[in-house]
Amino acid sequence: MKRFYALVLLAALPVLAADTPLAGSWNISVNVNGETHAATCILKQDGEKLAGTCKSEYGEIPLTGQVQDDKITWKHEVPYNGETLTLSYTGTLSSATEIKGAVNVQPYDITGDFAGQKAPPAEDK
Known about the structure:
Blueprint: H1 2-17, E1 24-32, E2 35-46, E3 49-56, E4 59-68, E5 71-80, E6 83-95, E7 98-106, E8 110-118
Antiparallel strand pairs: 1-2, 1-8, 2-3, 3-4, 4-5, 5-6, 6-7, 7-8
């Protein structure tokens, strides 16, 4: 009987792991004011909390955010021409490997859009 319960638990692990579909590396493309920027964001999900870093031409910057069902929000700051800009993302997880949405840049209140593709897991060597 113990063996049966162990098999049931092992079978349930992929379902339990599916509760954090955002966790991992994402290639993000941002289009703001006619300019396109790329970033690689490492997202970590703990329930409804989102954390991680985004690495772009501005360096590697921490992010914080929220997840609620398929809705995602996060923000981070970037240095730009001697100022600090706050980028706020609001999007939807449209599949396990795709997110899309809008980005807002403060203090200028400039808007744009973004799309992200989840990178496949690195193979163990």
